Amino acid sequence: MNTKQSNFSLLELDRIIEMAWEDRTTFDAIKFQFNLSEADVKALMKKELKFSSYKLWRRRVENSKTKHAAKRPSEIDRFKCSRQRGISNNKISKRR
Fold it and tell me: Where is the composition biased (Polar residues) (predicted)?
């Protein structure tokens, strides 16, 4: 990771880690929002997580069909849930 990529606020860092853990959030979505490649995300996760958590996450990502856009079913063509507000704040809309 270069120095530009390590200058995230705590809130941004938490969001990147959260997005990396989410099964349906692709690395492309993280790249779009934070300009981090898959390798950068992996390096960030290795740096920020406990080693056992990192290994668990890596195993989960490698077995995921939704984490990589090329492996996703073609009918999934969005970065976020349709009930979700702006991608930057990730607040779930209230259902009435």
Answer: 85-96
DSSP letter at 57 equals H
Whether the Cβ atoms of residue 61 and residue 67 lie closer than 8 Å to each other: yes
DSSP element (H, E) containing 61: helix 51-62
For residue 18, being part of any structural domain is answered with: yes
Whether residue 43 is contained in a domain is answered as yes
Residue at 33 is within a domain? yes
- 45-57, pLDDT tens digit by residue? 999 999 999 999 9
DSSP symbol at 83: T
Asked whether the beta carbons of 45 and 57 are under 8 A apart, the reply is: yes
How many domains does the structure of the chain reveal? Answer: 1
Residue 77 has which token pair?
């063509």
